[in-house]
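Because showing beats explaining, we think one record worth quoting, sequence and backbone structure tokens together, and here it is:
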Amino acid sequence: MTAALNRKFDLLQKSGTCPSYLLDVLTLLVAHANETELFKQELRSAPFENAAPPLRADRGMVAAAAPQPEMGAQNVTQPEAPGTEKGVLLAAERTLRAYASDLRKINDIAMATSSKKLREMKTSNFTEMAAFRDRVVSDAVDRAREELELLRVGWLESMNTEVERAKMEVHKVGLSSQKALHKMLEGYRDYLSDGFRLLKTEPLEVMHRAMAECAFCVERLKIMEQQVVPRIEIDALCGRLKSVERVIAQMMKKRHSSGVVDDDISVVPTAGPSETGASTAAAGDDRPLGLRLRDGGNEVEGLIVTEVAPNSLASKARISPGHIISHVGGALVTRRDDFTTAMQKTGSAAKLTVYDPETAVVRILTLKP
């Protein structure tokens, strides 16, 4: 056990990791352990009657006991054996008590030394930590100040750049606004000069007449919108109106050339020989809606009403001879067969587009046979 303790103590000394004050305490403890081991060995090896108490002054090796008598002298008496054994026990007790007292003193010394060293270590560690904290905080504060200064300088530079750019843009906008305002003033000046010139040179009646014509046109447009005539019917009626006007112009030329004035002449063109034959052939046909019709031929696009039966749907709708029927529904009719086919397709209600050459009025009539 002591050999192992000494070996570990040697390894600890060679490692150099143990503090000096702890090394001193361990040295004392190992020395006491070695002395105790030697004392035990002496007690085991020496007889009790010849044993002597070890010297405590030098803490050295215990002196060897007197040699035992030879085996041949067995007849020598030992009168002092009980007193010697008692003295050895008392000496051992005193030695053990002294050893325990020394151990307590060593323990107190070690505790005091350790507490002192610990207080010194605490003070030094606190001082070092405070210095480290101050150093780290000061370094962090200095670094933060430098970074903030760099950021402030960069922000000021960027703000100066943005302000310069904004100033240039405002200057450009101001110049463009000034130019636009100058152009507006010139235009307003020209407008006023033109207005004064027109008021001085042109009579107000011209403006009033133009406004009246505009109002009249607006009223006519409203009337046309109220009639709600489909576009295809308007186109057909326009074409029919042009053809009728052309026929009327031809008839007027013929009348002026012949020099005959007849107030009762019809605006419907007279039929030729072929048309007369067609009319004669149509006399025997049925009269749809009470109308007798004939083809307009090349002169008129549509069917010309030649006769209207009394009390018929056509007479009730105020269709008279000479009127021209151009459409039945949305279909253009130029022959009687077309009219009959369109009437059959319409079914119950027939929608007729009728033109009156005398009044130049186009009507859209719905007849239910």
